Amino acid sequence: MGLLATGIAVIIGRAEDEVLAMTVNAVSSLSLEPMLALFCPGKRSRFAQRLDAMPDFTINFLRHDQQALSTYFAGGWQAPAPPPFRFVPWRAAPRLEGTLASLDCERERTVEAGDHWLVIGRVREAHIGIPPRRPLLFFQGRYHGVDFAPGEPAPDLTAQDEPAQVFYGP
Known about the structure:
The model has no long low-confidence stretch (mean pLDDT 91). The chain has helices spanning 46-49, 67-73, and strands at residues 6-7, 9-15, 18-24, 27-32, 35-39, 56-61, 87-88, 95-96, 101-113, 116-128, 137-139, 142-144. The radius of gyration is 18 Å and the shape is globular. Strand 7 (87-88) and strand 8 form a beta hairpin. The chain is mainly beta. The strands form 3 sheets. Strands 3-2-6-9-10-5-4 form a 7-stranded antiparallel sheet. It has a 3-stranded antiparallel sheet with strand order 1-11-12, with no helix packed on it. The longest helix has 7 residues, at 67-73. The chain has one domain: Roll (Pnp Oxidase, Chain A), CATH 2.30.110.10.
Protein backbone atom coordinates (compact mmCIF):
# COMPACT_ATOMS: atom_id res chain seq x y z
CA MET A 1 0.00 0.00 0.00
CA GLY A 2 3.04 2.24 0.30
CA LEU A 3 2.97 2.57 -3.49
CA LEU A 4 -0.33 4.46 -3.32
CA ALA A 5 0.28 8.19 -2.82
CA THR A 6 -2.17 9.63 -0.30
CA GLY A 7 -3.01 12.99 1.15
CA ILE A 8 -2.47 13.61 4.84
CA ALA A 9 -5.17 14.88 7.17
CA VAL A 10 -5.54 15.63 10.85
CA ILE A 11 -8.80 14.43 12.38
CA ILE A 12 -10.02 16.51 15.32
CA GLY A 13 -12.82 15.55 17.67
CA ARG A 14 -14.15 16.65 21.02
CA ALA A 15 -14.82 13.96 23.64
CA GLU A 16 -16.61 15.77 26.47
CA ASP A 17 -14.20 18.61 27.42
CA GLU A 18 -11.12 17.09 25.75
CA VAL A 19 -10.00 17.91 22.20
CA LEU A 20 -8.29 14.96 20.49
CA ALA A 21 -6.39 15.06 17.21
CA MET A 22 -4.59 12.46 15.13
CA THR A 23 -2.80 12.29 11.78
CA VAL A 24 -4.25 9.93 9.17
CA ASN A 25 -3.57 9.06 5.57
CA ALA A 26 -6.42 6.54 5.41
CA VAL A 27 -9.05 9.15 4.55
CA SER A 28 -11.38 9.21 1.56
CA SER A 29 -14.45 10.64 -0.06
CA LEU A 30 -17.18 8.00 0.07
CA SER A 31 -20.35 9.47 -1.45
CA LEU A 32 -21.56 12.70 -3.05
CA GLU A 33 -25.27 12.20 -2.31
CA PRO A 34 -25.36 12.29 0.63
CA MET A 35 -21.88 13.76 1.03
CA LEU A 36 -19.92 11.24 3.11
CA ALA A 37 -16.24 10.96 3.99
CA LEU A 38 -14.35 8.32 5.95
CA PHE A 39 -11.17 7.81 7.91
CA CYS A 40 -9.67 4.72 9.51
CA PRO A 41 -8.07 5.01 12.96
CA GLY A 42 -6.21 2.07 14.48
CA LYS A 43 -8.25 0.47 17.28
CA ARG A 44 -5.42 0.85 19.79
CA SER A 45 -5.06 4.61 19.24
CA ARG A 46 -6.23 6.90 22.02
CA PHE A 47 -8.45 8.68 19.48
CA ALA A 48 -10.21 5.45 18.51
CA GLN A 49 -10.74 4.49 22.14
CA ARG A 50 -12.73 7.72 22.63
CA LEU A 51 -14.86 7.46 19.44
CA ASP A 52 -18.04 6.65 21.35
CA ALA A 53 -17.81 10.05 23.07
CA MET A 54 -17.22 11.89 19.75
CA PRO A 55 -20.39 12.40 17.70
CA ASP A 56 -18.66 15.02 15.50
CA PHE A 57 -15.22 15.51 14.00
CA THR A 58 -13.36 17.58 11.44
CA ILE A 59 -11.09 16.35 8.67
CA ASN A 60 -8.28 18.85 8.06
CA PHE A 61 -6.27 18.31 4.86
CA LEU A 62 -2.66 19.43 5.30
CA ARG A 63 -0.76 21.78 3.01
CA HIS A 64 2.67 20.99 1.56
CA ASP A 65 4.34 23.14 4.24
CA GLN A 66 2.66 21.43 7.23
CA GLN A 67 4.88 18.37 7.63
CA ALA A 68 5.60 19.36 11.24
CA LEU A 69 1.87 19.19 12.08
CA SER A 70 1.62 15.76 10.50
CA THR A 71 4.53 14.49 12.60
CA TYR A 72 3.24 16.17 15.78
CA PHE A 73 -0.31 14.79 15.59
CA ALA A 74 1.06 11.36 14.63
CA GLY A 75 2.95 11.27 17.93
CA GLY A 76 6.43 11.39 16.38
CA TRP A 77 7.40 14.93 17.41
CA GLN A 78 10.80 15.02 19.14
CA ALA A 79 11.27 18.72 19.94
CA PRO A 80 10.46 19.98 23.45
CA ALA A 81 7.86 22.49 22.17
CA PRO A 82 5.08 21.66 19.69
CA PRO A 83 5.07 23.26 16.24
CA PRO A 84 2.89 26.37 15.99
CA PHE A 85 -0.79 25.64 15.35
CA ARG A 86 -4.17 26.94 16.36
CA PHE A 87 -7.54 25.25 16.73
CA VAL A 88 -10.38 27.39 15.35
CA PRO A 89 -13.84 26.92 16.92
CA TRP A 90 -16.20 25.43 14.34
CA ARG A 91 -19.56 23.83 15.05
CA ALA A 92 -19.10 20.90 17.50
CA ALA A 93 -15.42 20.14 16.76
CA PRO A 94 -12.62 22.62 16.04
CA ARG A 95 -10.65 22.79 12.80
CA LEU A 96 -6.95 23.50 12.26
CA GLU A 97 -6.15 27.01 11.10
CA GLY A 98 -4.25 27.36 7.82
CA THR A 99 -4.97 23.96 6.28
CA LEU A 100 -5.65 23.21 2.62
CA ALA A 101 -9.31 22.49 3.44
CA SER A 102 -11.44 21.24 6.33
CA LEU A 103 -14.65 19.22 6.51
CA ASP A 104 -17.11 19.40 9.40
CA CYS A 105 -18.65 15.94 9.87
CA GLU A 106 -21.27 14.25 11.98
CA ARG A 107 -20.35 10.63 12.72
CA GLU A 108 -22.85 8.49 10.87
CA ARG A 109 -21.48 5.00 11.36
CA THR A 110 -18.46 3.13 12.68
CA VAL A 111 -17.62 -0.23 11.13
CA GLU A 112 -15.13 -2.76 12.45
CA ALA A 113 -12.39 -3.41 9.88
CA GLY A 114 -9.63 -5.69 11.16
CA ASP A 115 -7.33 -3.82 13.53
CA HIS A 116 -8.88 -0.48 12.50
CA TRP A 117 -12.27 1.21 12.59
CA LEU A 118 -13.85 2.62 9.46
CA VAL A 119 -15.49 5.86 10.61
CA ILE A 120 -18.04 7.34 8.22
CA GLY A 121 -19.06 10.96 8.63
CA ARG A 122 -21.78 13.01 6.98
CA VAL A 123 -20.22 16.24 5.73
CA ARG A 124 -22.14 19.28 6.99
CA GLU A 125 -19.82 22.05 5.86
CA ALA A 126 -16.53 22.59 4.02
CA HIS A 127 -13.90 25.27 4.52
CA ILE A 128 -11.43 25.91 1.69
CA GLY A 129 -8.06 27.40 2.64
CA ILE A 130 -6.29 30.23 0.87
CA PRO A 131 -4.01 29.73 -2.18
CA PRO A 132 -1.62 28.33 -3.05
CA ARG A 133 -3.48 25.03 -2.81
CA ARG A 134 -0.65 22.52 -2.62
CA PRO A 135 -1.37 19.32 -0.66
CA LEU A 136 1.04 17.38 1.50
CA LEU A 137 1.40 13.83 0.17
CA PHE A 138 2.67 10.60 1.68
CA PHE A 139 4.38 8.03 -0.56
CA GLN A 140 6.71 5.15 0.36
CA GLY A 141 7.16 6.41 3.92
CA ARG A 142 8.13 9.96 2.90
CA TYR A 143 6.47 13.33 2.53
CA HIS A 144 6.08 14.67 -1.00
CA GLY A 145 4.46 17.51 -2.88
CA VAL A 146 2.59 17.63 -6.17
CA ASP A 147 4.21 18.30 -9.55
CA PHE A 148 2.03 21.05 -10.99
CA ALA A 149 3.29 20.70 -14.55
CA PRO A 150 0.34 20.64 -16.96
CA GLY A 151 -1.18 17.18 -17.15
CA GLU A 152 -3.80 15.44 -19.23
CA PRO A 153 -7.42 16.15 -18.30
CA ALA A 154 -9.36 13.27 -16.79
CA PRO A 155 -12.20 11.86 -18.92
CA ASP A 156 -15.67 13.32 -18.44
CA LEU A 157 -17.47 10.22 -17.20
CA THR A 158 -20.83 11.98 -17.09
CA ALA A 159 -20.87 12.19 -20.90
CA GLN A 160 -20.68 8.43 -21.52
CA ASP A 161 -23.80 6.69 -22.76
CA GLU A 162 -22.36 3.18 -22.93
CA PRO A 163 -20.73 1.28 -20.08
CA ALA A 164 -17.06 0.41 -20.52
CA GLN A 165 -16.40 -3.02 -22.02
CA VAL A 166 -14.10 -5.33 -20.07
CA PHE A 167 -12.55 -8.37 -21.71
CA TYR A 168 -10.74 -11.15 -19.91
CA GLY A 169 -8.18 -13.36 -21.63
CA PRO A 170 -8.16 -17.14 -21.37
